[in-house]
Design goal:
Largest sheet: 7 strands, antiparallel
Radius of gyration: 22 Å
Shape: globular
Number of helices: 6
Distance between the termini: 63 Å
CATH superfamily: Umud Fragment, subunit A
CATH class: Mainly Beta
Helix content: 10-25%
Structural class: alpha+beta
Strand order of the largest sheet: 1-2-11-3-4-9-10
Strand content: 15-25%
Mean pLDDT: 81
Low-confidence stretches: 1-7, 15-30
Number of domains: 1
Length: 235
Amino acid sequence: MPEAPARSTLREYLEALLIAGLFLGFTNTFLIKTFFIPSGSMEDTLLVGDHLFVNRIIFGAAPSALERKLLPERAPRRGDIVVFRSPEHPTVDLVKRLVGLPGDTLRVLDKQLYVNGVKVDDGDYVVHKDPNVYKNVPFLDDQRRLRDNFGPVTVPPGQYFCMGDNRDLSYDSRFWGPVPQRYLKGRAFLIYWSFGGGTSDGTWRGWQEKFADLARTAAGFFTRTRWQRTLHLPR
């Protein structure tokens, strides 16, 4: 019986790359998504240039009973760092800390968060970088009027209230309202790389700018990588 012709090395590489691409595409769509931090709204928990793995199935996205058994899921909790679609611009993903569950009543009084009338002990992760405290008075713009004194508001059923850890510089649920559950994409659980050499804001400016970004990243990879944050679990 004649032997089957040997497959070319090029074909084997192409098949391996195709399988790897399909696997990465599947995991990024259904299991683990990658996300990078383009702004300082979550400092100092997450820094500009942090690259994250996001658990996409923890909040119940696993489609089958077997997957739900093998891949544990749970309801969102207060304190989770979540990635979600922006209620204002659903094509844009945001990352914030979940601070209010459905039915919770929230109030911010002179920068301090209260949930259901109880002062939240968030000193381990919340920072305030502006010493000014603005009152909720009509003549101020919303960015100042609602920043330090807000509510009380009750979170509607099936929605969640999210705020940035950098409370004075975060545009969050205080300004655009709670996040529908269907907009939640997952929980940030691991910083796999942190780069301090400048990070794209995600705006497409053409291939020339893309290649220039890649070149700058490659040139500064060893000197600008924050190695101490590699494989860091954000809390």
